[in-house]
Every structure is written in structure tokens, then in C-alpha cells.
What does this fold into?
Amino acid sequence: MGRVLFPAIRWDPDQGFTPAARSIDLALGLGVGGFILFGGPARVVRELTADLRARSATPLLIGADLERGAGQQFSGAISLPPAAAFGAIGDLDATRRAGELTGREARALGVDWVYAPVADLDAEPANPIVGTRAYGADPAAVSAHVAAWIDGCRSAGALACAKHFPGHGRTTTDSHLGLPVVDAPRSVLEADLRPFRAALEHGVDAVMTAHVAYPALAPGGGPATLSPAIVTGLLREELGFRGLVVTDALVMAGVLGAGADEAQAAVAALAAGCDALLYPTDLERVLAALDSAGDRARIAEAARRVEDAAHRAASPRPGEWGRPDDRDWARDVAWRALRVVRGAPALAGRRIDLITVDDDLGGPFPPGPRTALPAVLAASGIEVREATTATLTPALVALYADIRGWKGRPHVSTAARERVAQTLARRPDAAVVLFGHPRLAAEVPGDGVLAAWSGDVVMQEAAGRWLADRAR
It folds into this structure.
């Protein structure tokens, strides 16, 4: 019964994986199907996954959210631009290589199940959780990129997982924080289903459900994760998917609303047709609830799918991560994705004040490092002084405004906009680098604005190189 459970293991910046030792022991003793990993240096992650497999009595599936490459989670691996950047350059060969690179590095680290690609449409600008994570708004283009990424990932021997079925792109609520409701009719939702159909046609190994309600698909009003009409009726019977269905994380409010706890949600998700329960926190309580529910046939069916997937991914794939040629390629893609959205942004001198406005703070998990941009500028011969306010020295504003889980909004906050405006009032010639979706440029002042899609290291590096080339 434990095979349907996939608890999380998180890296602690101060203590590494040590704080997770007891929960790992418990999970392995209960016979879990695998784990989802968050963070850690690549070499340490490789040691962890090898140890987990050596200690497990059955084959494990070890997964991770690697939408932006293995470097999204594991330092030392390659960081990639977000999906929207690949959609913007429109190069399917690049998207296919991104899938292959992600799968190859994941397997080298002992991660065999990649929770990507995002198959949602960027259909709603007010969406607080999709945005740059999607390849775009056009169903045909998104379908093509989803298919290409899956082809690449599977060629590297990793399992791909299309998410978030049947489409999270029209929501205006973050499912980490509440239950979004999409009131669109089935005729409109057909567009959202197109990328998932493409994923199935290209042999995607798994599909992740959305903690989103769709009254047109399931009149009961609950999240898709808990809906037999959506998981079994639509995904299994109508679309014909026979692979592994995994829930989105069971710690999210979108599935824990109306007073439900994770044990109740786990029972309902399995009954709806899900096979793998992602990120349960109280394993013993969840198992007790599943045992009380008594649907042994459904649990056995789900466990068989987990077992089949684990055996398909079982062959080891030794390899490298962080190869220089892969890193150079990723930087080239990031460079191609940069967009000038207003004016002619440039550094007004070779000695500058760098004003960082970080609108991605808050929530339970900190954003990534903000050190790559100043490092690239300094390496290019630009004297950088990191400052809180602009002086008489030429200035550069770095505005971080990415899509982040638990943030709850897609827009630039009032405080961040005001801080950018204050800097530009002192230095009207300051360039602004927007590490977010280019459409957010409409929310901030500045005569020269460069959009870099996200605050990932590779996008910081590309923006720094671009600006250094244009320093006066």
C-alpha cells in the first residue's frame, strides 16, 4: 500500500539532508514508491539517490520539479530559461534539446521522473501561478513545444510528466493558496486539452492533476485531483491514457479546502483514479486512512502502475552534469530570448550603482541567488556598487518579478513599482532589467526596459552580458 506514496525530501542550507534522515527511514520502512526532491548540490543529491535505492526493498521512482532544467533544483547542474522563453524564440529543436538535457542530467543525478513539461496555456494574464511556466497562449504552438520537450526527455531515459491536467492556464487563484474555479464551457476547455492530447500522442509517461475546479467537466465543484469524472472519465476513458496519474502536492490549499485533510484527500484522489500521491507529510495517517477505505483493488491497480513505471526507469544512466558545452548552449538560448520592450536600455557608464528590487520575496521558500548579474558585469570590466538608492553614479535597476508558488499574484507590487520610480526620479537614464514576463513592463516606469523572463541564473547571466556589450 505504501507504494502509492511519494513524500518530499528537502535540502536544508545549514544542515543538508540530515534533518530528513528520520522521515526517510520511516518512508523506506513503509515501502513508499519513491520521493520528490527539492534542492541540494548535485553531487550530494547523487549520493542521496544512490543511498535511497540501495536501502529500498523495491525499485523507487525519484522525481523532481525540473521545469527549468536540473539546475532549477540542484546546484552544479544546468539552469535553463523558463518555458515562455523557449516559446518566444519558437525553436522546437531548442525545446527538444532542453528536454533531453534535463532528462540526461536528472538521470545522472539519480532522478528518473521529471515533473515537466507544463502543458498549461498562458491564457490569463492575471494568472498568479502559470505565466512564464507555460510555452505561450496558442494551443497549437504550446502543443508542439510540449511534444518536443517530451521527445527529448524520454530519449534521455527519464520519465516525463505533463501538468496540470486538464489545464491551469485560466485560473486567477494560486492553487497553493486556495481552490481556483474555471467557469469556462467545455468548448473553450478543448483548447486547454490540446497540449495534453499532444503529450499523450508522444507517449508521455505520467500526467499530473490540477487542484482546480471545472464545473463544465465535473459539476460537483471539487478539484480535478479528486474528480472521477475528470481523472477516470476524461483522462482515462475519453483520452485513453494508460500511464501513471500523479496528484499535485497534497500540501496545497487547492486540495485541502473545505476542511479536508491530506488523509481524506489521499483517499478521494485514489478513488478518482490517481495512482501516485505526491508530497504527503503524515505517511502513517495517510496509510491508515487508505486501509480504512478498504478499496484494495483500486490501491493494487495504482501500485501496479507505480511498479511498472519504476521498472521502466530502473536501468542506471551514469553520466555528467554541468558540462561546459551544455552551459554555453543554455546561455545562448537565454541570450536569444531577451526582449527589449521599451526604448534602448544601456549602461550609462562603466561604473554603476546596481539597485536590486526583489518582488519575489515571501512565502515559505526563498528565491534563488541574485549574484549572477553583478558577477557577469564585474567580469566584463564594469565596476558595480550594489546600492539601496541611486546616487550621481549611473544606475541599473534589476527588478525580479517572477511567477512563484505561494506568492499569490502575477503583478508587480505597489512597493516594488514605487521603488523603481524613486530610482528613476534620481537617475532617469537608468536602464531597467525586468526578470519577469515582458508584459509586466507596462506596470513599471523607465525609458529603457530589457525583459529577461525570470530570475534564473542563466537569465541573469544573459542580461549581464547583453548590458556589458552596450556599456557607454
Notes: The two ends are 65 Å apart (CA to CA). The chain has two domains: 2-312, 338-468.
